[in-house]
Amino acid sequence: MPPIVETAITQHTLWQALTGTPPPLALTPSAIRTATLDSRVVSAGSLFVAVAGQQTDGHRFIRSALINGAAAVISEEHGLIELDHGDALIVDCTTNHRSIPALDTHRQDVALSNRPILYVVDNSVAALQKVGAFQRLHRTSPGMRVIGITGSVGKTSTKEVTAAVLSQRFNIHYTQGNLNSEQGLPLTLLGLDLPHERAVLEMGMYDLGEIRLLCNLARPHVGVVTNVGPVHLERLGTIERIQQAKSELVEALPSAEDGGVAILNWDDERVRAMADLTKARIFSYGLTPEAELWADEIESSGMEGIRFRFHHTPKGRRATHLYIKLPMLGRHSVHTALRAAAVGLVEGMTWQEIATGLQRMTGQLRLVVVPGINDCTVIDDTYNASPASTLAALNLLADLQNGTHPRRMAVLGDMRELGSFTEEGHKAVGIRAAAVTEVLVTVGDLGRIIGEEALAAGYSPANLHILSTAAEAIEALNHLIQPKDLVLVKGSRAVGMDQIVAEITLTKSALGAKGS
What we know:
This protein is an alpha/beta fold. The protein has 3 domains: 4-127, 3-Layer(aba) Sandwich (Udp-n-acetylmuramoylalanyl-d-glutamate--2,6- Diaminopimelate Ligase, Chain: A, domain 1), CATH 3.40.1390.10; 140-359, UDP-N-acetylmuramoyl-L-alanine:D-glutamate ligase (3-Layer(aba) Sandwich), CATH 3.40.1190; 368-512, Protein-Tyrosine Phosphatase, Chain A (Alpha-Beta Complex), CATH 3.90.190.20. Helix content is 32%, strand content 21%. The strands form 3 sheets. The protein has a 9-stranded mixed sheet, with helices on both faces. A 6-stranded mixed sheet has the order 1-2-3-4-6-5. Helix 12 packs parallel to helix 13. The longest helix is centred in the first third of the chain and has 15 residues, at 124-138. Residues 104-109 and 508-516 have low confidence and may be disordered.
């Protein structure tokens, strides 16, 4: 489903943000209830932002968006050729005012409230960002605090669990799906409103400077960094540049005196080093007693979740210890819980509120467990794939093995954008897969590296199936899967891992709930 967000903006918001002038008296502050970059999901009263992408140019669908009921459109100048005469009232917001037919804002008899408005801008993405920043700065309570979350792995799960915790006390707004980019985050900001007390925003990046841009729009008070790993290494070149890019969040935080807090993973040396780059207060978390908030006595309860013990040792105050059981799968979920609890503590919540929020997480976020063919159980973790997340998924597979599931099977595909870490990352996965599975199926050219390394680690050739395509894997799995098997599917959607899930599960509901 293409992303569409609910907003709290009005026609007045758009006019002021894009023109920099007060709206004309004839323009009513009618609500813009939703916003999208996809004309197919436009409905009455929507904002459609026409953006030129790699696959297609959204400007080609302006007329379609207007037919579907768009109340406002943000477009670059070349989008005007898609208009029929009288389709929309045109407001020229370009820098040089290129002789675009302009709206006479002084005429009070212009029926502004009855016709859609097309705002012509120099750059549609920059204009969307301008509207998002306007809403953040001028349409929110001065006391609202923003929590920004970044990292190579675990951003979305951390965002979801943090939102669940904060909602126990505060009126919150948070990123829906994976809207964490230079386009997605400003869409999220459009939903901010005066009643909101906290906002939890996910921040992704592909290059240096992008998180700094997102921080300029969102103005975070608290920054959470999950980890630094070789995700997008193909774009950034080195792990040091990835670390530098993630550091932009903590660098943008206000000082400790002004309420800034950097919540850092003390188990990750590259994240720990960020403590020297910020004026904000440092709040450390991890599995080490050196951290302010840490955990031990971790025990997996299989499909029932995990148990562990929290320790909070704030400087100059008595330590707190808390045993907790959470409905989240895998030992890596302990770090997710630590991050969310850290945000709760920083925001003044009680342990009772924090524990309640953690325990009310009813879903497993991106990872979905569904019934499969031949009476197997499928762990669908195909949203994305990196060495760290794949190793975590294999560790989960090891934790879940019990008498109910006599065989553990992993279906692993290519992991993309790893750059110089490509071979090393796939080999690390192959070694771990060899240790925790009874059957291993690999898909794609890079998946072959996983299989070959598993063989080198002593894996039985009879239990290894190295395949080139998703279609081959689907055909093989129909014969390989036996009753009660536990089947993990993990890898890039570029090689069709989601198609494999669709063919070996008995329900398609999990697929419809996932982002793109």
